[in-house]
Amino acid sequence: MVASNRMIITLFIPCFVDALYPRAGISMVEILEGLGHRVLCPEEIACCGQPAFNSGYYAEARTIALPVLEKLADAEAVVIGSGSCGAMVKKFYPELFAGTRHAALARQVAGRTWEFSDFLVSQLGVTQLGAKFPHKVTFHDGCHGLRELGIHKQPRALLAQVQGLELVEMTEISCCGFGGTFSAKFPMISTAMGEVKCSSAAETGADYIVSSDSSCLMHIQGLLSRQGKPTKTISLAEVLNHK
Fold first, then answer.
1. Which 8-state DSSP code applies to residue 132?
2. Summary count for the chain: helices (H), strands (E)
3. What is the C-alpha separation between 114 and 173, in angstroms, rounded?
4. Fewer CB within 10 A of the terminal residue: the chain, N end or C end?
5. pTM of the model
6. Is residue 130 part of a domain?
7. What is the C-alpha to C-alpha distance for residues 53 and 63, in angstroms, rounded to an integer?
8. Chain centre distance of CA 118
9. pLDDT digit string (tens) for 26-85?
């Protein structure tokens, strides 16, 4: 399906996707370009500042976030391949820059920012991408995307149109335990939460755990590999780009 109204989309690839999961980022570019849009991926944008923000270092977070904010100032639409980074720009930038001379700009950029699956479904009205993925999968909802951005139906609407894919839901929605700095500060708790998530996924009999957040998948895959489990992980964008 090719979109009728072409846009110039600024794609914000999170730093961990750029460094560790480039196929997820490439898939997003190919999908958006396949829909007829022009995609810009500014190399100057590296980190949204979320690690510092989540640790309470607001001044340091603003130092990291300001160049990002200024780079996105004139973007027609900002699409972010992560619920957590998407929430940072869309929900927390206005909070971070409140009371500063950049407050209005933060609100403006936030209003033009979308998480990838939400942009496809809610903004472009696209669910059918011609993808084929003949596997049983289960979907993991990243906490920021679910709680801060309200994203739940959008990725499932996209997966429902993937030929050969069978989606089996986990019995409960829970955090995978990664949480960025949380996993470093509280490794035992993080691991225990991840093991619960892996167990829930195993109960579905799925071949793959799919998520919009590669950071969650990194944590989950690490646990699966250490447990010797056959279940694999894959990003939503890669599934949607699989022909």
1. B
2. 14, 8
3. 22
4. C
5. 0.93
6. no
7. 11
8. 10
9. 999 999 999 999 999 998 887 999 999 989 999 999 999 999 999 999 999 999 999 999
Site of tokens 């100032």: 73
Q: Is 123 exposed, middle or buried (0-12, 13-18, 19+ CB in 10 A)?
A: middle
Q: CB neighbours (10 Å) of residue 16?
A: 18
Q: Are residues 191 and 96 in the same domain?
A: no
Domain that holds residue 230: 136-240
Distance CA 13, CA 69 (A): 14
Task: Please state, in angstroms and rounded to a whole number, the distance separating the CA atoms of residues 184 and 18.
Answer: 21
pLDDT tens, residue by residue, 155-210: 999 999 999 999 999 998 889 988 878 888 888 999 999 999 999 999 999 999 99
Length of the chain: 243
Q: Do residues 96 and 53 lie in contact, with contact meaning Cβ atoms separated by under 8 Å?
A: yes
Are the CB atoms for 211 and 140 separated by under 8 Å? yes
**Torsion sign, CA atoms 173, 178, 181, 184:** positive
